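Quarterly update from the structural biology core.
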Amino acid sequence: MIMKRTKEPWMTTEDFGQSIPKGLSVNLLVKDIIRSADFQRKIFGVDTVYEDEDFRVQSGFGSQWLLHADHAYSEHPLSPNNSPTA
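Predicted structure, tokenized:
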């Protein structure tokens, strides 16, 4: 995982995962996290709960959803960059 974050996250991944209410959870992998978050704030009027270079938590309409920068998953086995070659 390639992280661009230069500061300490607001809470550990485990603690944040435990804080998410049970039910549907939406995680979006986006190419440009700043542009995606700005679009959602302007168009949908949602709030940003937390933001850094790799991750955003958006809140609105009684829900929270997560934006993940695609660079953070560039080494994931299912990433197009890691597709097996024939």
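The chain is about 20% helix and 25% strand.
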